[in-house]
């Protein structure tokens, strides 16, 4: 009976000695679980209000969005959903990159690119939600209700 030897493999990153300081992997793992639960509540609340109340999908138009973004409650609801979803997605992609990209430099570049893209989208989305003005450019509009609403301001 011949015994086969396993090849000498380098220890995976997870088996290497732990560095001193904050355990970012543990906090990332906890964040994924907590944000996942919050996102389920936020997304189903968002879908219920948008699709089940009122006229359903046929009632979603510019006026519906303008009405929602006029309320600080819905602004914060959407911003919280945006932030949690983008950070959750970026952290998941970071985990995939760490698992499958073998080159240290490539891995570092990809992780930085992920966080820069997520940060840019968070900044842009937050600006859109909090600076949304339905009356911007209304003078070129052909919608009567919008002209009336904005002229009353």
What this model shows, in words?
This protein is elongated. The termini are far apart. It contains 5 helices and no strands. It has helices at 24-52, 62-69, 72-100, 104-131, 144-151. The protein is mainly alpha-helical and 153 residues long. The longest helix is centred in the N-terminal third of the chain and has 29 residues, at 24-52. The protein has one domain (26-151): 3 helical TM bundles of succinate and fumarate reductases (Up-down Bundle), CATH 1.20.1300.10.
Largest sheet: none
Mean pLDDT: 84
* Rg result: 24 Å
Q: Count of DSSP helices?
A: 5
SSE-based structural type: mainly alpha
Give the topology string: H per helix, E per strand: HHHHH
CATH fold description: 3 helical TM bundles of succinate and fumarate reductases
Number of strands: 0
Number of domains: 1
Question: Uncertain runs with pLDDT below 50, 5 residues or more?
Answer: none
The helical percent reads 55-70%
Shape: elongated
Q: What CATH architecture do you see?
A: Up-down Bundle
């Amino acid at each position: 009976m011949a015994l086969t030897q396993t090849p000498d493999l380098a220890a995976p990153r997870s088996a290497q000695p732990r560095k001193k300081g904050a355990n970012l992997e543990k906090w990332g793992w906890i964040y994924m679980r907590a944000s996942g639960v919050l996102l389920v509540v936020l997304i189903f609340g968002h879908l219920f209000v948008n699709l089940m109340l009122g006229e359903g999908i046929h009632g979603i138009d510019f006026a519906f969005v303008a009405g929602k973004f006029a309320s600080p409650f819905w602004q914060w609801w959407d911003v919280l959903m945006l932030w949690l979803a983008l950070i959750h997605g970026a952290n998941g992609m970071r985990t995939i990159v760490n698992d499958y990209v073998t080159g240290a430099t490539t891995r570092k570049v990809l992780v930085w690119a992920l966080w820069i893209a997520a940060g840019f989208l968070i900044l842009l989305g937050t600006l859109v939600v909090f600076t949304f003005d339905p009356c911007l450019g209304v003078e070129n509009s052909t919608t009567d209700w919008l002209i009336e609403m904005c002229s009353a301001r």
